[in-house]
Amino acid sequence: MIKYNELESIKTFCDIIADMIPEGIMFLNIKEREVVWKKATKKFDMDIFYVGSKIPNDSIACHAMSEDKIVTEKIPRSLYGRRLITIAIPVGNESGKINGCFSAVFPKLHPVAAAFEDFAPILADMFHEGAFIYMTDLEKVAYRQPSEKFDMPSISIGYEIKDTDIAFKAIKSKQPQFIEIDASKYGEPVLVVNHPLYDEDNGTEVVATLGFITPKKVAFQLREISENVENGLTDISKAIEQLAVSASEIHTNEQQLNSNIEEIITLSEEINEVSTFIKKVANETKMLGLNASIEAARAGEAGKGFSVVASEIRKLSEQSISTVPRIKKLTDDIKMKVTEVSEKSKDSLASSQEQASATEEITASVQEITARSEELSKVSKLI
């Protein structure tokens, strides 16, 4: 119990230490059920308590007075909109009669909230592109910390949480939430992460959230580039596959052409053999014609008709003999041209083989680049 003659000293002491308490504090002197003195800090005040205001009958101060003992109570958020810790000490006269109370009211902050102003400025500037860190209670944003490189002006202290906000989802699900948002909402792509914070006493009730927002411009650019590269490589790969099919067909056609040319060379050689045979037959026919002329001459007048026939046979054999060199020259020319074509065909065949091999190597390289592009896309999602 505090005696009346001690109150002024206690008030003076409270005036001195109040602003030294980091989270803030509010002191109340209550007589009967009326507030007769109040000391609040800039960081913490409750407008419902003022000099002249009445306190409820079921308040902690009334309990302390009625029970004549110091009472400490944790007040849930549902009562005053925020969690509090209240200490009430009975006040009485020299005879021990209790008719007042001296109370100290503290905001009950989550340990993360208590340390926010210490760690948030350091942490926000540790990100390469900057970061925005914020804390919410169950209804609104209570703390915010931008970095030098990045800020979210639309998220101010007192901003009321909407059911579309990630903080709302973290509170309802009691699970960390991650979401990537494109530039349409905040003007640039961002990654938003929000973690629920639990009551430090029971560990099951969510009392606040801690959120991080980081710009993802570089990551989105990397992802866009990797997707464009991947799409381009896919198109190139399809074109190369078609080229490979064409190269295979060309190679097959060249093989068939080379085979046909070899057959033509063989036929040319056979024609030369036929020409040689014709020349041989013509020579023999000429000899037969000559022999026939001789026999016709021996026969005298009776052999004149046969002599004419023999003469014509010799003429035909001589014409055949004279034609054979021309046939041979033509076949030799054909053979020479075909040989040239055959050489070129072999060169084309070798080139088509090299083209097919090169196409396979290019396809393998494109597949490797595509795989690297997919890895780049995965990395960009982790940045």
From TrEMBL:
Region of interest (Disordered), ranges: 341-362
Domain Methyl-accepting transducer intervals: 221-383
Pfam families reported in the protein's UniProt record: MCPsignal
Superkingdom, natural source: Bacteria
Family matches, as InterPro entries: MCPsignal_dom (IPR004089)
Residue stretches of biased makeup (Polar residues): 348-362
Keywords per UniProt: Transducer
Coiled-coil segments on the chain, per record: none
PANTHER family to which the protein is assigned, alphabetical: LYSOZYME-LIKE PROTEIN-RELATED, METHYL-ACCEPTING CHEMOTAXIS PROTEIN MCPB
Name of the molecule in the record: Methyl-accepting chemotaxis protein
Source organism per UniProt: Clostridium neuense
Source species taxonomy: Bacteria, Bacillati, Bacillota, Clostridia, Eubacteriales
